[in-house]
Amino acid sequence: MTHWIDACATDDIDEEDLIRFDHGGASYAIYHSPDGQFYATAGHCTHEQVHLADGLVMGHLIECPKHNGQFDYRTGEAKRTPVCIALKTYPVKVEGDRVLIGLGA
């Protein structure tokens, strides 16, 4: 069962940007894509555990601030070395002006 957690307001994140969201001892990254959709991934790069909130969003890619590895934040797919392990992704829904992230029960 998915447990929906209120993460932020839709206007907290500019298009082609992201914010950090911490909840229950874990850290996530919430993205606002250039086509107006919202996405969520684990917050740390799978390469050296640097938080992605300091990274650069380009289109549908997040670039890690440490070694410039890239992920497609829609799918978590590793797109550029040195990253080779995908990011965990989470379901997102928008209710009114709120972005909710779906976490396991």
UniProtKB/TrEMBL annotation:
This is Rieske 2Fe-2S domain-containing protein. GO terms for molecular function: 2 iron, 2 sulfur cluster binding; metal ion binding. The keyword Metal-binding applies. InterPro entries: MocE_2FeS, Rieske_2Fe-2S, Rieske_2Fe-2S_sf. Keywords: 2Fe-2S, Iron, Iron-sulfur, Metal-binding. Residues 5-101 form the Rieske domain.
